Amino acid sequence: MELSSVYVGVEDMGRAVDFYSELFESEPEQEEERYSIFSFGTVDFGLYNAAFDGYETRFGNNCVPNFEVADVDDAYERIESLAPKMIHETILEFGDYRTFHFVDSEGNEIEVFSLDST
């Protein structure tokens, strides 16, 4: 078994694509009103507009995508000005695991972390 993709539900595809384009500093590989995809090598991160298919969705906290970065301090500073809400006011540290969570433009919780082996 191999992970192929992770996707989060979105209410406003344009707003979500704008948010994630700025967050990932890249454009989606595929952009449609129903589903948009950002590719990370062998794993895709998708944005799914369930209303397009006539489904009702409860937004936020359906899944917590976890992104590793080289420098969590730089990421925190950049994302703090981008994200509608930071869940943690500071970076949390658990041994060499440093992390913070924020809320995206559609109410989904996202985690960012780095492993500092100092």
TrEMBL record:
UniProt GO MF annotations: lyase activity
Keyword set, alphabetical order: Lyase
Domain VOC: start-end pairs: 2-115
Keyword Transcription regulation attributed: no
Pfam families named in the record: Glyoxalase
Superkingdom to which the source organism belongs: Archaea
Record-given protein name: Lactoylglutathione lyase family protein
